[in-house]
Amino acid sequence: MDTKVLNNQAEFMVKFPDGSIATGKPRFEAYKATIQKIGIDRVAKFAQTSKLKRYGQPYINKERNKVLEEGGYKQEFIGGYYVVSDFSALNMARFLRDLSKELDLGLTIYNPCKTPLAD
Fold it and tell me: Which of 56, 79, 88, 112 is deepest in the core (most CB within 10 A)?
């Protein structure tokens, strides 16, 4: 798994070992394409155990999460799950980095932020 910094902070990109690329503006489009390609069920299962959360809640839930809604976070319904859609590009990159490590996916994440992805 590799991370690289992009100069354009508005864009987010993930490259798969097969050479396919998920990219997009806004950043959530690339994030969504990535989790759909991996498989929403696999990603949702990982999200439940991930240390990256909002208000102690996972980024992906089977039901609309009231705690997240009350905190001002939007959720998009994707493949039977509610996915938080408006968190930072840095945390999207961190989440995908951890997911790639856990599932041994070999993703290259082009981090749109100048902040390094510290463990």
Answer: 112
Residue whose tokens read 């939007």: 74
Q: Per-residue pLDDT tens for 91-103?
A: 888 899 999 999 9
SS3 58: coil
The CB-based long-range contact list for 60-64 (8 Å cut-off, 24+ gap) reads 60/35, 60/84
The strand pairing partners of 22, in sequence order, are: 14
Does the pLDDT value for residue 7 go beyond 50?
Answer: no
Report yes or no: 95 and 102 within 8 Å, Cβ to Cβ: no
Burial class (CB in 10 A: 0-12, 13-18, 19+), 51: exposed
Distance CA 44, CA 58 (A): 9
* Cα–Cα distance for residue pair 58/24, rounded to 1 Å: 23
Q: Rounded distance, CA 95 to CA 12, Å? A: 13
Identify the bridge partners of residue 78 per DSSP, sorted by sequence position: 81
CA distance 19 to 82: 28
